[in-house]
Amino acid sequence: MQFNDKVPIYYQIKQYVYREIIVGHLTAGHQLPTIxxxxxxxxxxxxxxxxxxxxxxxxxxxxxxxxxxxxxTTDQTILTALKQQVITSEFDQLYDNxxxxxxxxxxxxxxxxxYIDQRKDDQHD
Amino acid sequence: MQFNDKVPIYYQIKQYVYREIIVGHLTAGHQLPTIxxxxxxxxxxxxxxxxxxxxxxxxxxxxxxxxxxxxxTTDQTILTALKQQVITSEFDQLYDNxxxxxxxxxxxxxxxxxYIDQRKDDQHD
DNA sequence: TCAAGTGTATTAGCTTTCTATTACACTATA
DNA sequence: TATAGTGTAATAGAAAGCTAATACACTTGA
Lengths: 125, 125
What we know:
The structure is a homodimer.
Chain A: H1 9-23, H2 35-41, H3 46-58, E1 62-65, E2 69-72, H4 76-99, H5 105-121
Antiparallel strand pairs in A: 1-2
Chain A binds a DNA duplex through residues 5, 8-10, 34-36, 44-48, 50-51, 53-54, 64-70.
């Protein structure tokens, strides 16, 4: 996994777990990799993993069980809300940044379409 | 100006200057506010401003003149490239993050359209 | 010439983040 | 019961970012 050095690692790990849950690699009630396993996999210190997970625990997204491991919540309300939040925040970010460039909303959609079309063409590698 | 505490302030200021140039609040050859003025306006230390500007200077986006001030480059090649880079990087970020959620490109456009429509409706405040 | 306003540089100290290490509490199982 | 594997906690040190303060180099204009 690659980290952006402009953002705290623990925060990026938190976002990573969000994505793993939303994509379905981690499903309701299932166990996460061990904190120590995650530390090895992501080549990061145990404390940094713990810092990320402690925030997810506060949010009731994952449930810790001493001596056993960490588990994804089975509360579907939380899980469906999570998906909406993460996706919406992506669009929020794009919208705000492009609006700051005086780009009108209709143009944002057009430009995204153009960007994606170009990306398809550029796949000749 | 509001800063995101997850990203270095100097970096956000750099992005801010990019936007001011692209939007046209700062035009080719024109003088930027003084470093000390910027420090007051953004309620940030002079050194933090200096750190942001030093990167813009390395990129030849702004040109410093000792005893006079900092000026936006008159090199149109740099300025037009800048605009493209900034806008493209916004789409890059959105694309990567949504792709990580297994959202196909066509859906991204649809969802952005829906998001923008909702935002219009929500303007009833 | 001199004073005020520029950019530039340096030092010191604080806070946050990350790492390394050690220790402890709990669970499962041999 | 003992051991290995969990989460949890605390301490110390390094690095990055930010602030505060001071000083210096250059330009402009009175």
